[in-house]
Amino acid sequence: MKRILFALVLMALTAGFWLGRRQASSQQVTGLPAVLRQVQTLNELVSVKYRIQKVVGIEEHKIPVGTEKLLLVVQADVLAGVDLSSLALEKISISDARQIAVTLPPAQILHVVFDDKQTRVWDRQVTWWTPWIPYNPDLERQARLVATESVKQSAAEMGILNDARRSAETSIRRLLEALGFQAVSFPT
Length: 188
Description:
Largest sheet: 4 strands, antiparallel
Distance between the termini: 68 Å
Oligomer: single chain
Number of strands: 7
Shape: rod-shaped
């Protein structure tokens, strides 16, 4: 008899615990600070990645005469998205428990990552009639800096910022819908 009573009490506690957890998980997060915390946890939301190949040439004039030229072939991943860590409370408005509007920060290029296996110096020359002038060991680093800006510009021209914004809106919409909102908008 004691065993049956113990089993019934154990089942009642388990059922109460399970129902309590289920009710807590089905409640929606509606408070502005809670929503802000949930969105800010995404931090730098990288929503688009483009892979770009470029050839960059750089030339340095030597003193007193001559030039050094370097031709660099680069392959880089350009990562773009939205930095949500700076999202402020006044950028979120909840009209009722099921509608929310979030004004996102502008999309930006967050990182440029070179693929070192695919990036290489294709050609390097010093003017043939000035063989006493040494190679500049810093010229490749300078070429990489030029390549970084060139890759960013190419990605922007290809529309990476528009793609990043649309993809970020989709990701944040899914998060907010999972939190219980039915209508999510992104005013500009």
